[in-house]
Amino acid sequence: MPCHNYDIPTSRRAFLRRAGCGFGSVALAAMMREPVLGAPSAANPVLKQLPQRIGQAKNVIFCFMEGGPSHLDTFDHKPLLQKLNGQKLPPSFKEPVLAMGESGAPLLESKRTWKKYGQSGLLISDWFENVAEHADDLAVINSCVSDGINHAGGVCQMNTGSIFGGRPSLGAWVNYGLGSENGNLPAFVVIKDSEGTVVNGVRNWGSGFMPAVYQGVEFSSDGVPIKYLDNPKGYSSAQQREKLDLLAKFNQEYNRTRTDNTELDARIRSYELAYKMQAEAPEAVDLSKESASIKALYGMDKPETAVYGRNCLLARRLVENGVRFVQLYSGAGSKWDSHSKLEENHSRLCRSVDRPIAGLLTDLKQRGLLDETLVIWGGEFGRTPMSEQGGGRDHNPGGFTMWMAGGGVKGGQTIGATDELGLYAIQDKMHVHDLHSTILHLLGVDHTQLIYPHKGRPERIDQNEGHANNKLITG
């Protein structure tokens, strides 16, 4: 008898997928309570709740300062730090575990000039004098807490809720829960300020255990934002449509018995999205249509602010065109990390983002978009009050600052507090899980109901630990 060369399945999942023309994978998905892509159970679980949405925000622009900006030199003024400059940390303070392990370092004063701004009188340093003009729109959260002592864990947790990789990013959860307002553009877009690699790379905007279709789409920070979008010369849209239809037919046939392969489904959808984007995206990202005065508002007329200004203006155009979540990285490659020469490093970086972010807030407000666009500023952690290498500061996940504006947030207020030296959050602590829960709440989504079943567990962005802070709305 001839010997047949059968492909023997190497796992139970592979066996069930192949057995009975793939019906086994449907049974496995049911047993694991996982959605079968394309089946009714995979439908968006939040869409039916949208008519009852109470959140004012429709979109999010997250200005992420990668590397950890110093809260002590920007938005959290500590007069005692000035008085004790050069002295050791008082014994009444618990010695923190530091990323770089330096111990016994003296306290380092802030060299900034601080002023009260707006009717609210928020204290903000001269490093953010332009953003400070919007003090009455800002809710400054001075009591943020993270578990990530290093950049890999900190950036991962701020983006996904966990210090370990493998979970969906916040933007992916928002995409999964609310979807896009514009089917011709991605719901989740990421833009960096350079070609530098963000720590953890694309996992920061990945979809984790969700279908890959929910992951973020990276736009370029230089030149044409969306590469390879145009058809080759002499190649018509009709030809492109025929090519995609044929490719989709092949892919769908291949995917028919591989419903657990979300990467293939995401690729099919990405081809279709790219085709739709060819018609709408060029208009959405065409900054040439903006006036010189608007470009100057964002700082595009100055070399030091041109890159982040362009990205902020692009973010405004994207949310204006229905993109749900835009994340703008500053300092890609952990450039905000200032273990030494903090004055030099932060002076340059703050100058590069201050005017563009202020311009973004001004522009959103004058267009009537700030009420429905939640703007977030912050990094993965803050910095220590103790010095490192003489003129720098180490990582501080125990207490740091982020701020929010627009999207229903009540401005002109400070939420929570760190101790007198800015080392630990002591009042109204907001862990990263609470921040994520609050962001979803502002978007009108109950974070306890935004669930994705994975391996028999009802997974949430906050890993069942977060609480939305209503003070951002009520004050």
UniProtKB/TrEMBL annotation:
InterPro entries: Alkaline_phosphatase_core_sf, DUF1501, TAT_signal. PROSITE patterns: TAT (PS51318). This is DUF1501 domain-containing protein. It comes from Prosthecobacter algae. The lineage of its organism: Bacteria, Pseudomonadati, Verrucomicrobiota, Verrucomicrobiia, Verrucomicrobiales.
